[in-house]
Amino acid sequence: MVLFAITAKFNEATGNKAKVRITGGINLQKLQLVGYAVSLNGLQPSAQATSGATPFQGHRIPNQIVVNLDVIGTSQIHIATSRKTDGTAIDAAPVENTNPYSTGIPLALGDTLKTIQFGLTGIEFDIGKTIHNEIIVEALKYDDEGGLVNMDTGTPVLVNSAGVVDGTAANNVFGKTTLQLITLYFNYDFNSYF
Fold first, then answer.
1. What is the pLDDT, as a whole number, of residue 89?
2. How many angstroms separate the most distant Cα atoms in the chain?
């Protein structure tokens, strides 16, 4: 088995899509996902004004990121999802025929800015080609209504409980997280150099 890692760095200029370069060609029949690491940017509590402001309440971290790789066929991943809702309230009614559809790899996140997960087994993708030059990595997340949207990148800011910047600074007590880095770790059987 050979280790193949894809490390994609994100910032305001790249947005939620990053190009990863490979030197030479890698001849792949199958890729097996064995682990991943996700690093988010977040604010330090000291970034908030301390004079009379409500204390920092923590970061708004999505429960998962959905990663699309252009080298994995869209017929190999299918994510079933609930219908979207029509608002951010807990009891908001679902909207018919609004299930977001994705063919990306879902990566569960922990409750801190860094998530590292290894020991995955049984997650294998048929590739059957030589990968040359670039791989495009796209990162998505689910919003509060259940829709699939671009993962935030760039500089994190203070937001209110709904995840938006409020006109009243005292309401902005949560740190909005942005994506910094995704590393995907794969194993594959060695075939040939090119």
1. 61
2. 65
